[in-house]
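Hi F.,

I've been meaning to write this up properly since the lab meeting, where we talked about keeping a consistent format for the predictions we share between groups. The idea is simple: the sequence comes first, exactly as it goes in, then the structure tokens exactly as they come out, then a line or two of notes. No screenshots and no reformatting. I'm using this chain as the first example so we have something concrete to point to.
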Amino acid sequence: MRRRSALATLAGSAAVFGAETRERAPDFVGKTIKGEKFSKESLKGKIVLLQFWATWCGYCRRDEPAVDAVLRDFSAQGLIVLGINVREPKATVLEYLGKHPRACKIVLTEDTNLTSMVPTNAFPLYILLDREGAVAGVQKGSGGEEMLRRMLKLVQLER
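Output, unedited:
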């Protein structure tokens, strides 16, 4: 029997803020829509917030200013946000971004293996990785800026 990854296990459970024991995230790779390549290894030393989202998701749209705010406040301290669009055509995503620009790095389903590791049936879904690449927290659903800031405290990012 194949063991589920830490990402899949946490993402599939109830909304969890902090993982009691931090399991290492599985290896992942990808590239942004601007062509920037990344991997779990290349992001080591950074704090990574993965936001799984879709253009049609009203809750995702509502959280966009909050995601931009925490990225602006903490990028100098090593925060990277990867906005992983799930199962939508590139043309749809580009059209949406033309009307609603995002500050975070955008990744399409076909450009990463992350979407195959995480059950994404509710949006948005946030997974926070610490500087060592371990899962520090998971949040299913929208929570706004206050939730994101509380989540980032799990990895000692706070103002």
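Notes:
Strands lie at 29-32, 37-39, 47-53, 79-85, 105-112, 125-129, 135-140.
DSSP finds five helices and seven strands in the chain.

If this format works for you, I'll send the rest the same way.

G.
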